Amino acid sequence: MSTAWGVSMPGLAPKPAGRATAARGAAVLHEGDWAVPTAPRLNLVRRLREQGIGAEPVLAALARIPRERFVDEALWSRAYEDTALPIGHSQTISQPFVVARMIAAVLPARGRLKRVLEVGTGCGYQAAVLAQVAEEVYSIERIRALYDKARANLRALRLPNVRLAFGDGYAGLPEAAPFDAIVVAAAAPALPEALLKQLTRGGKLIAPVGADEQQLLLVERRVAGFIETRLDLVRFVPMLPGLAK
């Protein structure tokens, strides 16, 4: 597989106070501009907690990330609804409950991940949330236009620990493996074998599996093999092979 890398990584030059300009003209926001929880974000977190999300590091991460920055401006008024929203190319930004549920499922008891792979970057929102609870986030996207959009969105937040790849999610990122968590944001008929092989021992993978009826499947790699746990019924876009413009 040929993989093109885009970065939102360490090494960015310090910027003066206020706003600056990122690649493709995107406004760069300093952490103090975007990370302070707003009332809509706190209301979303409260609703998620009421729905049973109890992982406080995940809730804190959701409170820090401005979801409106990852959707078209026409949808900003709906950014903190607990629903999926269109991002173009027949794709969606995932429902916040599902984002929280999936990340909480792979989060270790210590509340911090080391190296995580996201399959299906989309607009970059889930990668940004993962960046709050992981030391290193790798995310792969097969649609070039979404890869470019996510790169601009993430660069605007100057997240230092996210690396994006343009490539086929079915292949994963063997050059960056092993991962202690893999989060798959599209539904495959069965779990891709290549992704399972890229889990470290003790690592966890969560993915929607199925066609007409999809279910979240949590897989943990043990010494003796893989342990599977079936979770919620969900609805995701299909996971497709290959690359697309």
List the SSEs and their pairings.
Layout (H helix, E strand, L loop, with lengths): L3 E5 L11 E2 L5 E2 L2 H4 L4 H12 L5 H9 L20 E4 L2 E3 L2 H11 L6 E7 L5 H6 L3 E8 L2 H14 L4 E5 L12 E6 L8 H5 L1 E11 L4 E9 L2 E10 L11
Parallel strand pairs: 6-7, 6-9, 7-8, 9-10
Antiparallel strand pairs: 1-8, 2-3, 4-5, 10-11, 11-12
- Which runs of at least 5 residues are low in confidence (pLDDT < 50)? 7-25
CATH topology group: Rossmann fold
Write down the oligomeric state: single chain
Mean of all residue-level pLDDT scores: 90
Count of spatially separate domains: 1
How far apart are the termini?
16 Å
Shape: globular
Our estimate of the beta-strand percent is 25-35%
The biggest sheet amounts to: 8 strands, mixed
- CATH architecture tag: 3-Layer(aba) Sandwich
Please tally the β strands and state the result.
Answer: 12
